Amino acid sequence: MSDALQKCFSEASINGLTLRNRLIKAATFEGKSPGGIPTEAHTHLHRRIGEGGIGMTTIGYCAAESDGRINENMIYMHDGIKDKLQHTIAEVHKTGAKVSGQLSHCGNFTKSKDFSGHGLFNGKRPMGPSFGINSLGLAYGLPFTGAMTVAQIKERVKVFGNAASWMKNTGFDAIEIHFGHGYGISQFISPKTNKRTDEYGGSLQNRMRFALEVLEEVRKQVGDTFPLLGKISMTDGVKGGISWDDSIEIASLLDKGGLDCVICSAGTSSMNPMIMFRGDSMLEGLIANEKKPIMKLGMRMIGPKLFRDYPFKEHYLLEHAKRIREKVQNQVCYIGGANSNAAIETLMNEGFDFIQLGRPLFFDPDFAKHAAADAGYVNGCTSCNQCATLIEAEGGVKCPLNNHFI
Ligand SMILES: Cc1cc2nc3c(=O)[nH]c(=O)nc-3n(C[C@H](O)[C@H](O)[C@H](O)COP(=O)(O)O)c2cc1C
To answer: What is the pLDDT of residue 160?
Structure first.
């Protein structure tokens, strides 16, 4: 085994948390929590991936509050599901893997009309940095987005911190804050969606204020010795949005703000999702799984502009992630198209500390075991992206090429 593979398949730590290797399951919302309650299928997925030898799994999209969900089938951090999450965590721990949770907020991009939690919407409209259109909510009676007051921003900072503290007490080994993909925090970072003229808008420093305040509050509530990762978008993939160059400063500010490990993703679910995934377009699959006819029609009309053509290539975000690796002091995690041991060797040699895997684990949950045993390992994920079209289908995500996660 080469030195690079040896490095990947040896123990490594994030802020004192030791993982058995450097492979982490990426945060993926798998649609296995109908009504916001994680099911046994949810536990099975994470346990099965743990059994496959991964260092740490990530429970995707853990909303900081009820109104932070994109749809009502996502979980939010509250006592009603504590026993379910503790069950999943305990089952994963039995496999030797650790468990992280992706702490998220949708901001103004949502179709959830569940206003039952303590609310930011107040039954009216989803809130973000500025007034605008909520494309996801058009057919769901939520067409507009409102601008948060400074008091509401400060309250969200606390909401993030309280949710983080709750996650730590629930038994998560680490937390990954979602700073990217066009969701709540990145709506503030992006000049495309943040049109504020107060201290939360304008310069990059100002647009980063909410992100840095959230990081500071989360750190305060979980303590200095708890591992905190953060996922950023290195570009929004649209004119006037976050640029590749901006992302170096974004990563650097989070690094200085006390983030232990930055995860270098790209794209936005709202404006340019394919830059995050690459490979076959998800549009047809999403239309097939959409329940509202009006939404189907809208997706047919607007979809081709949104779901642009980005052919898959191995480790497709490497060129830009390298620039962040060079700039930041703390750890850096690579994500995006790491599908073989050849890719792992390249990424280890480039100095990345960890690698996150999304789709390849749906294809082969034993990725880590198989790759550790075979230097020539190539994962068979075809980047057909059908898994991603199933997040709202009955039963949730599975790979069309196998039966692991039915
Ligand atoms: C089914 C599915 C659901 C996803 N859900 C999330 C999510 O909830 N949060 C997130 O940050 N990224 C999400 N992603 C993006 C992945 O974390 C990852 O960035 C992307 O799949 C590229 O990595 P890969 O090439 O290893 O699959 C999702 C991806 C898939 C396939």
So the answer is: 98
- Whether the CB of 398 sits within 6 Å of ligand 1: no
Reported as half-sphere exposure (CB side, CA atoms, 13 A), residue 2 has a value of: 16
Assess whether the C-beta atom of 231 lies below 6 angstroms from ligand 1. Answer: yes
CA distance 388 to 374: 28
Q: Is 337 in the pocket of ligand 1 (CB under 6 A)?
A: yes
Strand order in the sheet with 132-133: 127-128, 144-147, 132-133
Statement: residue 122 has pLDDT above 70: no
Nearest alpha-carbon partner for 261 in 63, 97, 93, 16: 16
Q: What is the pLDDT of residue 118?
A: 58
CB count in 10 Å sphere of residue 80: 11
β strands within 220-286, DSSP E:
228-233, 261-265
The CA distance from 196 to 149, in Å, is 10
> Sorting pLDDT into bands at 50, 70 and 90, what band is 115?
low
Ligand 1 atom closest to Cα of residue 391: 1
Going from the N-terminus, what domains does the chain have, and what CATH number goes with each? 3-389 (3.20.20.70)
Under the banding of pLDDT at 50, 70 and 90, the label for residue 278 is: very high
Indicate the residue type of 189: I
pTM for the model stands at: 0.96
- What are the Cα distances from residue 259, in Å, to 302, 331, 342? 37, 9, 29
Q: Whose CA is nearest to atom 13 of ligand 1?
A: 28
Q: Which of 277, 315, 386 most suits a substitution to test ligand 1, by most atoms within 8 Å of the C-beta?
A: 277
**Segment 151-171, tens digit of pLDDT:** 999 999 999 999 999 999 999
Residues in the chain: 406
**Is any ligand 1 atom within 6 A of the Cβ of residue 178?**
yes
| Cβ of residue 29 lying under 6 Å from some atom of ligand 1 | yes
